[in-house]
């Protein structure tokens, strides 16, 4: 089968004819809004770029900017689109208009995924092989999407105890996508802001909680402003784009260089999610030392969440028509099939880095060449 990605990239190449040609040496500038010390830089992105530099015999070099020094979470898409940088970390939920199809899938996936590796693999296979409109959304922004990731389950990170359904009433909670609807339905008030804005908002009392990954407590220094963590899983964010490229820059790479990028992308997205999983576990083990209380959810909160999961999926499907998206139910059905497929694969190989990357390459990335 001719992949969606391959067909779309072929069409894109026709549009770029006469504007760019493959060159011998390319320097890739990457913009990340994660903190500089993040292991996502030291153990994922830097090794990824070092591998492609070595495999291209130095023809591909890179410069990595962190801490949002070039572009923050909401501005990265525009920075790549306009050629300010070549690559960067994109959160599609910050761009529901421009990336409406992949953002919708991320909202649908929120309460379907409990294992980040299952989400990472299923999402990449669906977007790159089965969703032409998803790929086209990025191409319309002058971006080639290459590698998506999934987080470990999100939790409630708060500056006050939140254990019951009633505890959420009246609270201001940073939440985007399906989580915003969840908080509003619980009687709280969702606040739309980026991850990086959470620290100051918690410190100043502008919000009471943020929904996010446990490793944010270290990565974004939230241990300084969070006193309580509810350990109930609130689903995952699946669909962050870690490996991508400005379309003109992509056209500068020859076929061999593109193959190097694609092959190493399968390992990078696995590494990204595994680092997230490991860091989240390690962070929670520091709770006592940091005087942060870990709270188990009370029965009424568990019951509320279980009920809302089904309602949220139906709400997101209904939302699709408002956003001009066709085939949301078919999207859900196919993605559900892929979730089951990758649950089986992950059960088979566990979180073995090399085995997962090899399977992801065989099942997805080898079909993009």
UniProtKB/TrEMBL annotation:
InterPro entries: DctP_fam, TRAP_DctP_sf. It comes from the Bacteria. Residues 1-24 form the signal peptide. Keywords: Signal. One of its GO terms (biological process) is transmembrane transport. The keyword Signal applies. The keyword Signal applies. This is C4-dicarboxylate ABC transporter substrate-binding protein.
């Amino acid at each position: 089968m001719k992949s969606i990605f391959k067909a779309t990239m072929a069409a894109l190449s026709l549009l770029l004819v006469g504007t760019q040609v493959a060159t011998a040496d390319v320097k890739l500038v990457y913009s990340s809004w994660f903190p500089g010390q993040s292991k996502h830089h030291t153990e994922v992105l830097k090794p990824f770029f070092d591998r492609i530099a070595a495999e291209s015999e130095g023809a591909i070099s890179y410069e990595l900017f962190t801490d949002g020094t070039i572009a923050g979470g909401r501005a990265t898409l525009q920075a790549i689109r306009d050629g300010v940088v070549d690559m960067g970390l994109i959160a599609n939920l910050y761009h529901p208009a421009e990336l409406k199809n992949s953002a919708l899938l991320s909202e649908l996936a929120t309460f379907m995924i409990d294992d980040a590796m299952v989400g990472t693999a299923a999402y990449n296979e669906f977007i790159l092989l089965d969703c032409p409109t998803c790929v086209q959304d990025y191409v319309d922004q002058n971006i080639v999407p290459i590698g998506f990731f999934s987080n470990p389950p999100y939790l409630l990170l708060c500056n006050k105890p939140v254990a019951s359904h009633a505890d959420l009433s009246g609270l201001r909670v940073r939440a985007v996508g399906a989580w915003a609807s969840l908080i509003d339905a619980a009687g709280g008030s969702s606040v739309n802001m980026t991850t990086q804005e959470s620290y100051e908002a918690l410190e100043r009392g502008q919000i009471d909680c943020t929904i996010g990954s446990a490793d944010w407590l270290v990565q974004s220094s939230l241990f300084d402003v969070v006193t309580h963590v509810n350990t109930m899983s609130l689903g995952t964010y699946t669909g962050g784009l870690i490996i991508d490229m400005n379309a003109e820059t992509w056209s500068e790479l020859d076929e061999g260089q593109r193959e190097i990028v694609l092959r190493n992308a399968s390992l990078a997205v696995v590494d990204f999610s595994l680092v997230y999983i490991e860091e989240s576990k390690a962070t929670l083990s520091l709770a006592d030392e940091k005087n942060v209380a870990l709270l188990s959810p009370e029965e009424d909160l568990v019951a509320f969440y279980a009920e809302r999961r089904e309602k949220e999926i139906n709400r997101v499907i209904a939302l699709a028509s408002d956003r001009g998206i066709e085939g949301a139910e078919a999207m859900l059905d196919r993605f559900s099939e892929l979730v089951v497929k990758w649950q089986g694969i992950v059960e088979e190989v566990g979180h073995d880095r090399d085995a997962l990357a090899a399977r992801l390459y065989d099942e997805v990335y080898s079909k993009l060449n």
